[in-house]
Amino acid sequence: MEKLAFQYVHENGGLDSEESYPYQAKDNLHCFYNASYNAIMVDGYASIPSGSEEDLMEAVATMGPISVAIDASHDSFQFYQSGVYYEENCSTEWLNHAVLLVGYSYSDQDYWIVKNSWSENWGNNGYIHMAKDRNNNCGIATDASFPVIL
């Protein structure tokens, strides 16, 4: 899922900054991409071994934020507000939403710190704490990758 975005950035020679090209949640807008405003250039991407939460943890600790695909189809995800999210009926294979894994924490319950794209009004200021080391819950470690930056 997220690999298509990395491929697009690579093929188009880079990506504008959010300042020069702010997100607009509207359909059928004309593309205003201008390569002179590129904030980053991508040479490709690297994938994390599928299903390995241990490799995912190492990658986010050493490489920084990681793109992950998850199953976000459940109401419990759509209406998440706080706490450590665990959905017993989540799929590890049917992935329908790309999010950004930014870290992890060890507390009473281990969890991943994940940034969603649904605004700061969703979840915990735009973030969700997803259960870690719970058999790849919601597929968080199924399809994970990060860009190779030039």
Automatic annotation (TrEMBL):
A GO biological process held by the record: proteolysis
Lineage: Eukaryota, Metazoa, Chordata, Craniata, Vertebrata
GO molecular function: cysteine-type peptidase activity
Family in the record: Belongs to the peptidase C1 family.
Name the UniProt record assigns to this protein: Cathepsin L1-like
Keyword annotations: Disulfide bond
UniProt domain Peptidase C1A papain C-terminal: residue ranges: 1-148
Record PANTHER family: CYSTEINE PROTEASE FAMILY C1-RELATED
Source organism of this protein record: Poecilia latipinna (sailfin molly)
